[in-house]
Inverse folding.
């Protein structure tokens, strides 16, 4: 089972076997991302498999809380008949496939879609999770895809900005072992506790904090002139814009002392860190602008695509047998 690349590998790579009639599950030590590590959910698979509370036959609801056991043949026939009747009466587009990734790997996620592509049903746009930030990054970089998480081992610094990676991206967090870690967040998460530095900003001040850091990088000549000249548009306008920002105002509004903002800017520019941008902040008014402002920092220091946000570069069409959207992730 290959881990999902979204956010740095969030699905366990497993080695499983039966011993004396019992399922044994272990982490795959040979996988380049998970490297033998199992998340708590993966470690519980053996217990769930043998649990007496596990459903082993399909159930048909009879009333509000009354369920009747049935066979797989009957259950599949009920679903197939309902799909067929709906399509015959209202057309295939009247059936909507509502599903998201959760903790599933590529095959579990994509293979069932073969049926629905064949039936030509309506599909989701998948815009609930991260669309505002995605569009902001596309406006800035032309893509929402940053570095490959496997490149983490070559980095000096990772900044977790608005993401509790230790809880929500444990494999990505473990992949960053040995790298200096900073966290920018509004609360002290478990990730913040395990980080070398924690910048606890006030809610909804992500844009201002990022622009304050950008101001210091530019005014102290810490930006990569060659990279900016070759790859960026509108730098002079941006430089003029951040020059009007008062650092004392940034400190007051964000709750971060001026010397801490300076520390962030100078060390970040020196180490050219990557930034793992969380989804939560962009699910708010002006959330896309927060992602856009944060994402400008890697470009300023010459770190091409030095962020992690979307990891949808894998072509899953072989699994789901859908149409391939060519060129979507060219950059």
């Amino acid at each position: 089972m290959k881990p999902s690349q979204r956010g740095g590998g969030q699905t366990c790579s497993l080695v499983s076997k039966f011993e004396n009639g019992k399922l044994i599950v272990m982490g795959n030590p040979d996988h380049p991302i998970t490297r033998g590590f199992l998340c708590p959910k993966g470690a519980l698979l053996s217990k769930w498999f043998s649990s007496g509370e596990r459903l082993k036959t399909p159930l048909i609801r009879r009333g509000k809380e009354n369920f009747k056991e049935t066979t797989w043949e009957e259950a599949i026939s009920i679903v197939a008949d309902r799909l067929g009747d709906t399509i015959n009466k209202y057309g295939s587009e009247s059936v909507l496939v509502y599903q998201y990734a959760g903790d599933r790997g590529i095959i579990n996620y994509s293979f069932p879609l073969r049926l629905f592509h064949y039936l030509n049903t309506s599909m989701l746009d998948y815009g609930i999770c991260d669309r505002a930030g995605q569009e902001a990054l596309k406006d800035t970089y032309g893509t929402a895809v940053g570095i490959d998480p496997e490149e983490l081992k070559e980095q000096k610094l990772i900044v977790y900005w608005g993401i509790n990676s230790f809880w929500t991206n444990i494999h990505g967090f473990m992949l960053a072992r040995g790298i200096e870690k900073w966290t920018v967040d509004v609360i002290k998460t478990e990730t913040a506790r395990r980080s070398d530095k924690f910048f606890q900003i006030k809610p909804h001040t992500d844009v201002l904090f990022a622009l304050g850091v950008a101001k210091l990088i530019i005014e102290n000549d810490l930006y990569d002139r060659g990279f900016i000249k070759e790859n960026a548009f509108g730098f002079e306008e941006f430089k003029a814009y951040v020059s009007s920002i008062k650092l004392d105002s940034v400190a007051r509004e964000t709750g971060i002392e001026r010397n801490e903002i300076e520390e962030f800017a100078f060390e970040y520019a020196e180490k050219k860190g990557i930034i793992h941008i969380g989804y939560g902040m962009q699910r708010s008014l002006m959330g896309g602008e927060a992602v856009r402002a944060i994402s400008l920092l890697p470009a300023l220091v010459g770190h091409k695509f030095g962020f992690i946000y979307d990891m949808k570069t894998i072509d899953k069409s072989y699994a789901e047998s859908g149409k391939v959207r060519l060129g979507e992730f060219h950059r």
Notes: Residues 72-90 form the longest helix (19 residues). The chain is about 40% helix and 15% strand. The CA atoms of residues 162 and 278 lie 5 Å apart.
